[in-house]
Amino acid sequence: MLDAQTNATKPDHAAADHPKVPAPKIGVLLANLGTPDATDYWSMRRYLNEFLSDKRVIDYPAWKWQPLLQLIILTKRPFTSGAAYRSIWNNEADESPLLTITKDQTKAMTELMQARYGDQVMVDYCMRYGNPSTESKVKAMVAAGCTKILFFPLYPQYAGATTGTANDQFFRALMKETRQPAARTIEDYFENPAYIEALAQSIERAYAAEESKPEMLVVSYHGMPKRYLMQGDPYHCKCQKQTRLLKERLGWDDTQIKTTFQSVFGTEEWLKPYTVEEVARLAKEDGKKHIAVVAPAFAADCIETLEEINEEIKESFEEAGGEKFTYIPCLNDDAAHMEALAGIVDENLKGWIG
Fold this sequence. Notes:
alpha/beta, Rossmann fold, four-stranded parallel β-sheet
């Protein structure tokens, strides 16, 4: 995708043996969580080891956490996680859906940037965990002539375990560059009006396609230990505000929409209510027969949406007496979504490009 020799020339008055220098460009680097390379045991183990060894994700002391991780968790979990990934794997491309969708988003963003700025801006993507790594893509952008890089973690709401660690990895990659580019990171965008509009439109389309209107929209965000909130992580507050903004845009009241949190891991208390428990309660105690679930913490469908929500959480609702479960996909490469993200890029490129 990146060609270091495109428009490369020798500097004026340079010696004959001076290497060619690529024409200066601005890089836009989209960043997502990550993906295993395959679903076999060792591929899953490498991926899970990198992910679960991140101190932003699991902040227990290494002496306490690493023996548990290496000797117990990584002995068993690659098998169960591999099976979960196999249930959603893109077999045609032999890659995870997250990787497929991130490629599609990158293609769409490339087209939008070319329409605006021509060859002055190049777009690529990286993953925090797994491949392609952040370091490899920063290195490739610098080699291709990027003297400025705008780093865009695709997380609408800031959390230390998502945006924070993505930025950490970006800065670590910059530390290894002899000639560092100027760098900017993008602030979270959960309250961006164009983004809220794109999300609301996707919900309205999903509701319009149903024969019967869902009785409740469950807005399920990825969870985190409650302790992180107490330590100052703003993620919980941002999720609550996003649901409120979405509710106001849709013109609904509190009886039609509810915030929950999924993907609980370990034994300590996480942000509540837990999605898997709340959907069962809605069916069993409130008598809801038809609910819809949307997951706006994710910019692209992934294991947490395609497998956890559309299989495990759906099963919890149905076993409790629910009859119709509607999963509303992530925005992925939806045109309105990509225009919203491109608008955010435009705003952050000010001062760098005319």
